[in-house]
Specification:
Layout: E1 7-11, H1 16-27, E2 31-36, H2 39-49, E3 54-58, H3 64-78, E4 83-86, E5 97-98, E6 101-102, H4 105-130, E7 142-147, H5 160-181, E8 185-192, H6 198-201, H7 205-213, H8 224-236, E9 244-247
Parallel strand pairs: 1-2, 1-4, 2-3, 4-7, 7-8, 8-9
Antiparallel strand pairs: 5-6
Length: 256
């Protein structure tokens, strides 16, 4: 799909991987809606890239009505939706049985709700609007890109909630692609390794150093723009569908 003059949404688009994706999509001529809860950061991006290209929609992706409302506003503002990139998510460190007892159940449910249910929620409602598009290149109507993690394959100690949520996103990928094939909508997932996001920059050396050791070549953390490059390539490469792509320099996560 040619990105120029298309309409995209990016959840978690106010920072990190999502912000880099917003910037890349705009540079390629897309109109972009940032679905996030950080209005201040989103407004800084809008000021930088131009209000004619971006809108901010404060959205709790874990709930049905806020997502429906945001998708409707995208339709009202831009008239269509062609690309959805799900970057919103977070983690929670905790062993199944820790020093203070069992892993808090509410924390586990929250991570699943945000990372997996939120992704599914945005995907299903976005697909409904995409299905109304006129078919473009190779009869394509839309592209959905979800974000998993290498932790969805080999989670570390203390990553039960995060790993389970990201494994769910990986497991959803092929099924979603098959479900939406009849609607001419492609679905792919990116499974990043360790990226040099603002959150990672705040981590102490005792956390960062072992992660850096597990990278192969290039022997460094990934850069957010590299995630954005892959996301836009998926949009532009029409034959990519139903695939989860590791973006990790060949690393494999160690137990801790």
């Amino acid at each position: 799909m040619d990105i120029n003059n298309k309409v995209a949404l990016v959840t978690g688009g106010a920072s990190g991987l999502g912000q880099a994706t917003v910037e890349k999509l705009v540079s390629k001529g897309a109109k972009v809606a940032i679905l996030d809860i950080n209005e201040q950061k989103a407004n800084e991006i809008i000021e930088k890239l131009g209000a004619e290209n971006i809108i901010f929609l404060s959205t709790n992706i874990m709930e049905e009505e806020p997502v429906i409302s945001s998708i409707n506003k995208i339709h009202e503002k831009f008239g269509a939706l062609h690309i959805a990139v799900n970057c919103a998510g977070t983690g929670y460190p905790g062993r199944i049985l820790g020093k203070d007892g069992p892993h808090p159940l509410d924390a586990f449910k929250f991570i699943i709700d945000l990372n997996l249910v939120g992704t599914f929620n945005v995907m299903r409602i976005s697909a409904e609007l995409m299905d109304k598009n006129e078919e473009v290149s190779e009869s394509e109507k839309g592209v959905i890109i979800n974000t998993a993690s290498v932790a969805g394959y080999e989670g570390q100690i203390g990553q039960s909630a995060y790993s389970a949520s990201k494994a769910g996103v990986i497991g959803l990928t092929l099924t979603a692609a098959r479900d939406l094939a009849r609607h001419s909508i492609r679905v792919c997932t990116i499974a990043p390794g360790i990226f040099d996001t603002p959150l990672m920059q705040l981590a102490p050396d005792k956390v960062r150093d072992p992660l850096l050791d597990s990278t192969q070549f290039p022997h460094r953390f990934g850069q957010p723009n590299e995630f954005a490059e892959l996301a836009t390539h998926i949009v532009e490469n029409t034959y990519l569908n139903g695939e989860t792509i590791r973006l990790d320099s060949g690393m494999r996560m160690k137990p801790r």
